[in-house]
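Appendix B, record 7
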Amino acid sequence: MTTHPPQAIIVGAGPVGLTTALALARQDIPVVVLEAEPALTHDLRAASYHPPTLEMLASLGIGQTMHERGYIVQRWQYRDRREGLIVEWDLGVLAEDTEYPWRLHLEQHQLTRILADALAAYPHAQVLFSHRVTAIEQMTDHAIARCQCVDGERLVSGAWLIGADGGSGVVRKSLDTEFEGFTWPERNVNISTPYDIGQHGYTFNCYIADPAEWAGLFKVPHLGPPGLWRIGFPVPDDETDEQALSDEGTQARLTRLLPWEREYPVAYRSIYRVHQRVARDWRRGRVILAGDAAHLNNPVGAMGLNGGVHDAINLADKLGRVWRGEADVSALDLYVRQRRTANIEFIQAGSIRNKRTLEERDPAVREQRHAEMRALADDPVRTRAFLLGTSMIESVRRAATIT
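Structure tokens (predicted):
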């Protein structure tokens, strides 16, 4: 069976794919989302949304629902495992820069459900599950996704095809473009516990520096009170996945972070490789990349999912204008220039810098950075500039200047 254009095909029903689909559907553009899994996935990684991301998602009509289900986090901390609290930052200083001077914590899988529910209101949008894309073909006026389905092979055609199928997805590979960058030697393990870490003075978002085992803490709503604390740790090369995910390994990490005479309750645990990569080409012909299909980064600073949403909104705006004949296809190349530049200059550079700061081994360098951070926090002008960067407002502004 073949579905014919005009429609936009989106490969991947994650947050980036569904954000793109909803942004296009709201412009009366027919969209079909192809997802390999039989249902929306329960992804346990990203869960923190920066101010510009909240602005963008609110423009799609889902901001209120997200805030009803999530945690507003106005303050976040930078700590050292030995010295304790170094700085506590208040995003309220950005009140004149954004309608949302806070982070919102809400698990990625909750966002995808909210997006899918909103998308269901549009009769010209559909999400096809159990449609694993195996190959992409391009013609002069359309692209074709070859899918493996429960009942055999299916071809889905569309005027444009957007790859939002992740770092190992088939769409980027079909473009035969370099995925430039590197893979970090250590993996990351995420451990979720309902134990109330906040009672010990930690804000709902906190980064803890340590040369041997840094940590990133996030409080997420889960199914409701008391929620969960999700803690990310590095896993060295000489530790196997099985050891890191074992009860013994999990408890050892938690008690090293916060000693306790009892065993911590653990709701979830997962482990994954960490990459810093950017695709050389984000568009060829009628195929365009967004989100993890175009770029990957380490999680320190919560920039990956946010950057993917920024891609989605930027791309949907430009593709909408091309679709309506208000712009020629060069608008899609502008999308690539804007978002690729913002990713390299801010997301890649920032997340690498954040990680290296947390794991710095030289005591003198660590102390110097702590002193610089305290001095920065004492200067209101520099504090605002710093938070404009870490909240990703500056990266969005930078992208908008590129022509």
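Remarks on this record: The chain has two domains: 2-73+103-182+279-357, 187-272. The chain is about 35% helix and 25% strand.
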